[in-house]
Structures are given as structure tokens and as C-alpha cells.
Amino acid sequence: MYFLEAKNIIKRYTGHTALNDVSIGVPQGTIFGLLGPNGAGKTTLIRILNQITGPDEGVVLFNGAPLHPHDVAEFGYLPEERGLYKKMKVGEQALYLAMLKGMPQKDAMAELKRWFIKFGIESWWNKKVEELSKGMQQKVQFIVTVVHNPSLLIFDEPFSGFDPINANLMKDEILELKRNGATIILSTHNMNSVEELCDNIALINRSQKILSGNVSDIRKSYSKQLFEIITNSGGLNDADLPEGFISENLVKEGIYDRITLSVRNDLEAPAVLRKLVLATDIFAFKEILPTMDEIFVDAVRNSNTQQ
Known about the structure:
Elements: E1 4-13, E2 16-26, E3 31-35, H1 42-49, E4 57-62, E5 65-66, E6 75-78, H2 90-100, H3 105-118, H4 134-146, E7 152-156, H5 164-179, E8 183-187, H6 191-197, E9 200-205, E10 208-214, H7 215-221, E11 226-232, E12 245-253, E13 256-263, H8 269-277, E14 284-287, H9 292-306
Parallel strand pairs: 3-8, 3-9, 6-7, 7-8
Antiparallel strand pairs: 1-2, 1-4, 4-5, 9-10, 11-13, 11-14, 12-13
Helix pairs in contact: 2-3, 2-4
């Protein structure tokens, strides 16, 4: 049973189908990447999960039961369109939003202070939101999203507006939330973050799900049978290569050669390595798997060709 499951979701607007029979399943305690080009339908699905809007067809299940309005109290949602009140003081607003999530004032104040200290922003408490940079505002919005310790967190482009240092800070916090038991849905265009953070993903394009599964399994399924080895300089000639092995690139690095090989035989990495050690001394070996960015582009391009 999935912690959160959307089954056969269809959502239509006048003259446009935003989601066409889309299903996803989010295991408990994992980070689930919701991916797709702009206009693919991701935000519509997120709004349905948050009960901001309803599907025309299909059902959303939370803990195995149909999603109910009171379940939203268990959610934390960071929308792509930030929504802080510009003229309101940061601390007052954070406290107000935490209490809207059902936290008693005393508990909300204590937890907010802890988060503000953790992020090193306690001096912002009495500043107006409009005095803060976009990145600073986003830190505040992240805090009010997680302060009530929700069991399900939905982050829509959480890294936009952040410099690399603060983006890494957010990644660390998201992983910490996962370690503490939260289930997380992450919608992002940053494919490096997907590789670093996500256990599973679903890719939506033109209103339809075109790819889903475990990130490692997906990368493996898109393997181009490329491998990299480091060996002694001149230690491996083309004539020494096993049958079906082709040298694609060689880089001299002092007394070593870094060689990229393509393997025409459908061999797993351990079998490739066993053949290579018979031909030369191997100091390092790895399979070169396609990045999620490459897979994203290929999958969307193929989908657009087929539709």
C-alpha cells in the first residue's frame, strides 16, 4: 500500500485536458520526484493532491483511504508561487501561519524560534517581508511549511531563487526531514537534485505520465553500455580488448590512461570487469550511466514524437 496514491486522474479545463489518466504511488518515508516540462500538468496534480481543486475522474488515496479534507492538516505545501504578505513582519506572519496549521501559540513560537536559530535568521523576526531578498523570503516560507511537522511534504521548485550554498542547505534539510520519517514529493527542473535526493520519480509530459519508477533502475534501463577504466599508460591496446569492446576515448593522465569503452554485448558491469581484468591491470572501473537530465530530454523528445 502506498502512503499517497493518485489513481487514473483526469482533469479537464475548457478546451484543454491538463491530466489524462495519470497515476502515481508514493511509498512512505521516501522522496518522490514529480518531473515534467512547463505546462505538462505537474502543478495541476499537486493542486489536486492538496485539495485545492478536484479531479474530474479518478481518486486520491491517503494511507489507503480516500483523501479527506481533514487530511490536509497532515500536509506541508511549499508552492512555486510564493505567498508571504509583504507588509507583515516575518515573525508575526510565521506564527500566524503555524497556528493556522493547528499549532498552539506556545508550541508554534518555540518551534519557530528553533528553526530561525537553526537557519541563522533570528534577527529577521521583526523585519517586514518586503525587506528580505527573494532567497531570504524562501527560507521563511520553507520554515512555515515544515514547522508543524507534517507527515507529507510537497515542495514545488524549492531551490529556485537560492544560490548554490543555500540550495545545498535546503537539500540537507530535505534529507533530514526524510530521515525523521517525512514522506516528500519534490517537483523540480533541477535534475541534479533528482539524482541526489529522489528515490522514485514520475515524468509527466503533455498531460500524461510517460516514465516512472526507481531512479537507479531508470538510469540503468537507459544504459548505453559505456564503461570507464583507469589502467597503466599504454597498458591496453585495441587488439587486447575482448570481443565486442570498443575504445571510444582515451585520456593520458601521467602514468595512467583513462579509457572510455563501449560494450556491444549485453553484459552487466561485473561481467565487463571480469573480462577486462584478463586483458590489463585495472586501477578504477565504473559504468557511465546517463544523467537524469539526459533521460528527461530523451523521454520527452520520444514522447513528443509519438503523440
